[in-house]
Amino acid sequence: MASDVGRVRKVNEDACLARPEIGLWALADGMGGHSAGDLASRMIIEILQKTGVPTGLSDFIDDMSRRLQTVNRQLLDEALRRGQPVIGSTVVVFLAMNNQCACLWAGDSRAYRFRAGDFTRLTRDHTLMEDLIARGKYPGVHADNDTTLNMLSRAVGAENELKLDTATCQLAPGDVYLLCSDGLYREVSETEIREILLETATSHVCDRLVQRALYYGGRDNITVVVIEIL
């Protein structure tokens, strides 16, 4: 794991977790522009940190969902107490058990798989732009200049009921999985991320990716979690 505040922000609102002994990794990115984003991401990681040893992947997924629903309610209550419209965070969770894995997420923090040279995104961003594309409505040639299309459509703490997406797949020896906040992929292209994974020892990938994002400007907090399947 590696995390950096970046070159512009004064507070790191990202938080991450690695518990390889039970097959749990997670990343949360406090919502920029909202009050106490760092509190929201920290609360997510703290409740996931308390997870016990799972009995099966299905139960593991259910437990993660319950814990995130609990944080969602707590953040809604905290926002109400403070008189703030939203205190929220994205989240992406990676679970591995036996020869299977699962991703749970809300927001635009991502999970990727690097397998035999192929670099594949496992998550779909919960943004207005991605939601339009999923419905077959291409936003248009000027969409990249429309910042409103990058607004989150889901996050922990944003709605009364948290909606999580889940994806499952088989693990294979040699797989490398990457969790990251948008501070990485908005600075470093997926092509370049793949090249770094291809040519860098897994133990140095996180630091190298963070340094590359800083090199390109580091305009947001940058957090990277890497999981290698042996």
Describe it.
The mean pLDDT is 94. The longest helix is centred in the N-terminal third of the chain and has 26 residues, at 57-82. This protein has helices spanning 37-49, 57-82, 128-134, 182-185, 190-199, 202-215; strands at 2-4, 14-19, 24-30, 89-97, 100-106, 110-115, 118-121, 165-170, 176-180, 222-228. Helix 1 packs antiparallel against helix 2 (57-82). Helix content is 32%, strand content 26%. With 230 residues, the chain is α+β, with helices and mostly antiparallel strands. A 5-stranded antiparallel sheet has the order 1-10-9-6-7. It has a 5-stranded antiparallel sheet with strand order 2-3-4-5-8, covered by helices on one side. The protein has a single domain (2-123, 154-227), classed as 4-Layer Sandwich (Phosphatase 2c, domain 1). It has 6 helices and 10 strands; from the N terminus they run βββααββββαββαααβ.
Write the layout of secondary structure elements.
Blueprint: E1 2-4, E2 14-19, E3 24-30, H1 37-49, H2 57-82, E4 89-97, E5 100-106, E6 110-115, E7 118-121, H3 128-134, E8 165-170, E9 176-180, H4 182-185, H5 190-199, H6 202-215, E10 222-228
Which features does this protein show?
single chain; 230 residues; alpha+beta; Phosphatase 2c, domain 1; 5-stranded antiparallel β-sheet; 10 strands; globular
